[in-house]
């Protein structure tokens, strides 16, 4: 039975024609371009980088199909099937005549991921308004997330159940027994950060306990430190302390992410990177919710 597509994505969004197998040389790269084009058409911005765990299987499928096809022509298509999975198929007619069809699932539940992305909301808070560097970072971050930077006294997190809550400021590092750690973010301690998120006078603006997204601490050294706790001093990361305090308040679904060195925000505000890295823990996140520990990009939770 031939595969039935609900939505075509590869090689072009909403076009069913497919691409000749012989002309597909870089499937991972070509498919990601098509997925990004689909996101753009849906007015979505994938700051996390969506995971496509079945790409290797799709690559193996194409390799086998090229061997099966020989000089005969087959067609490669990709998109969503009736179950909402992202698939790649190779179809056609081989001598005989004999129908040919091979399918690889690139990402199960892709349609649900897209729907979840559409529900995301974001907040960016400038913790040091008036500081030129922080003002620019906050503006760039807000632009990248298609929102407007807020000040702490006006911050509203109440309508966000998934997405990114970004707090940006200068981070204050310190050395304890030779260990470089983050001590404050915008002159705020972890306790004060959690108070800003959860203990505002207007309860409707406080972060919901249903929030399942990421709290981003965009400031230098907010994830610097080690997991060791020697006698007499807690070396846990600043972001780790924020996470621990949120967990104690009943925030069981969210992530907290910080920067292990000097934070740099891209000009388009779509990602943060670390200019000076240290031997530190990048993410403050417990084992209940696995995270992507690479390069400080937005969103600790893998899609």
Spatial extent as radius of gyration: 23 Å
Strand fraction equals 25-35%
Number of helices: 6
* CATH structural fold name of the largest domain: Rossmann fold
Helix content: 10-25%
Structural descriptors:
alpha/beta, single chain, 2 domains, disordered C terminus, Rossmann fold, five-stranded antiparallel β-sheet, elongated, 303 residues, six-stranded mixed β-sheet
Please describe what this structure looks like:
The chain is an alpha/beta fold. It folds into 2 domains: about 110 residues, no CATH class; about 160 residues, Rossmann fold (3-Layer(aba) Sandwich), CATH 3.40.50.11050. A 6-stranded mixed sheet has the order 7-6-8-11-12-15. Strands 1, 2, 3, 4 and 5 form a 5-stranded antiparallel sheet that branches. It has a two-stranded antiparallel ribbon with strand order 9-10.
């Amino acid at each position: 039975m031939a595969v039935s597509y609900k939505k075509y994505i590869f090689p072009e969004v909403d076009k069913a024609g497919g691409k000749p197998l012989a002309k597909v040389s870089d499937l991972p790269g070509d498919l990601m371009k098509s997925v990004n084009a689909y996101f753009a058409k849906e007015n979505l911005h994938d700051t996390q980088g969506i995971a496509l765990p079945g790409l290797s299987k799709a690559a193996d499928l194409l390799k086998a199909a090229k061997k099966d096809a020989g000089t005969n022509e087959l067609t490669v298509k990709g998109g969503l099937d009736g179950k909402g999975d992202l698939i790649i198929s190779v179809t056609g007619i081989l001598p005989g005549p004999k129908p040919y069809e091979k399918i690889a699932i690139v990402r199960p539940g892709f349609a649900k991921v897209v729907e979840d992305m559409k529900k995301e909301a974001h907040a960016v808070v400038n913790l040091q308004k008036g500081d030129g560097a922080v003002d620019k970072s906050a503006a760039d971050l807000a632009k990248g997330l298609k929102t407007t930077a807020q000040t702490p006294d006006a911050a509203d997190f109440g309508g966000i159940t998934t997405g990114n809550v970004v707090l940006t400021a200068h981070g204050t590092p310190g050395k304890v027994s030779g260990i470089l750690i983050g001590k404050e973010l915008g002159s705020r301690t972890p306790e004060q950060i959690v108070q800003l998120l959860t203990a505002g006078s207007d309860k409707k603006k406080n972060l919901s306990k249903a929030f399942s997204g990421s709290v981003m601490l965009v400031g230098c050294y907010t994830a610097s430190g080690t997991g060791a706790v020697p006698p007499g001093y807690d070396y846990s990361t600043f972001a780790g302390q924020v996470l621990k305090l949120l967990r104690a308040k009943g925030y069981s679904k969210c992530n907290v992410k910080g920067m292990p060195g000097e934070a740099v925000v891209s000009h388009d505000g779509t990602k943060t990177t670390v200019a000076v890295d240290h031997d530190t823990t990048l993410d403050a996140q417990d084992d209940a919710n696995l995270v992507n520990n690479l390069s400080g990009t937005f969103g600790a939770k893998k899609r």
